[in-house]
Design goal:
The protein is an alpha+beta fold. It has a single domain (2-212), classed as q2cbj1_9rhob like domain (Jelly Rolls, Sandwich). The protein is 21% helix and 33% strand. It contains six helices and twelve strands. Strands 1, 2, 3, 4, 5, 6, 7, 8, 9, 10, 11 and 12 form a twelve-stranded antiparallel beta sheet that branches. The longest helix has 11 residues, at 98-108. The radius of gyration is 16 Å and the shape is globular. It binds fe (ii) ion. Fe (ii) ion (FE2) binds at residues 132, 134, 194.
Length: 213
């Protein structure tokens, strides 16, 4: 089992990331990128088909800043729960691996040495997250990767993580609309404003957030 779990070659199309390394590193006002086709197709399909359904194990976040649903997969180095299928176990193992840190460091130009958190993030009609920065006072070498698992997203529809220039939603500079095997990646800085517009349609935006430092 361990050997199967440690063969990571079927997970990511690293070429796609490496080709866009410069775009990420030169992006303004903070380093960020949107990329399509990150997961190898076969692996993506298996993750997509087994993306967890909403139940009482999810944490519902509901306050003035946001309405959203979250379920932890990996905290630091510990996989949360043991009923994940092979693909999710493999993904969970991979995001805490040296190989993953090295590849992400190469792509971002940021020295990544530690996994902090990987969680499922699901949003439905009525959910949103106001523009915010993920501040705890220490922004050095922190990045977020948000992988999307949502098909048939319509151009212009809210739900993807937008980037903006300040706390005002009018300052949006980018919002993704292809949420089927795609991702956004950004560095955390004191001006890395981002959020999710209020979802008005009866849709479900499925994502996985990986936080590294
Ligand atoms: Fe955030």
């Amino acid at each position: 089992m361990n050997n199967i779990l440690n063969d990571f070659s079927e997970i990511f199309n690293w070429d796609i990331l490496n080709e866009q390394s410069e775009s990420f590193q030169n992006a303004k006002p903070f380093r960020n990128i949107f990329l399509k086709g990150i997961f190898k197709e076969n692996f993506y399909k298996k993750l997509y088909d087994s993306y967890p359904k909403f139940d009482e194990s999810w944490v519902v976040e509901n306050d003035w800043r946001r309405a959203a649903k979250r379920k932890n997969l990996v905290s630091e180095t510990k996989i949360n729960g043991d009923d994940w299928n092979l693909e999710w176990k493999k993904f969970a193992t991979y995001v805490t691996s040296k190989e993953f840190f090295n590849n992400i460091s190469k792509f971002t130009g940021i020295n990544i040495t530690r996994h902090m958190d990987t969680s499922f993030l699901a949003s439905e009609k009525g959910d949103f997250q106001l523009p915010h920065i993920d501040s705890d006072g220490n922004y050095e070498n922190k990045i977020q990767l948000i992988f999307y698992f949502s098909k048939n997203w319509q151009k212009g529809d809210p739900g993807g993580t937008f980037f903006c220039e300040n706390e005002d939603e009018d300052s949006i500079i980018f919002e993704p609309y292809d949420l089927d095997n795609s991702m956004v990646c950004f560095e955390e800085t004191p001006h890395s404003w981002h959020g999710t517009r209020y979802i008005t349609k009866d849709v479900r935006r499925q994502a996985v957030l990986v936080s590294l430092t």
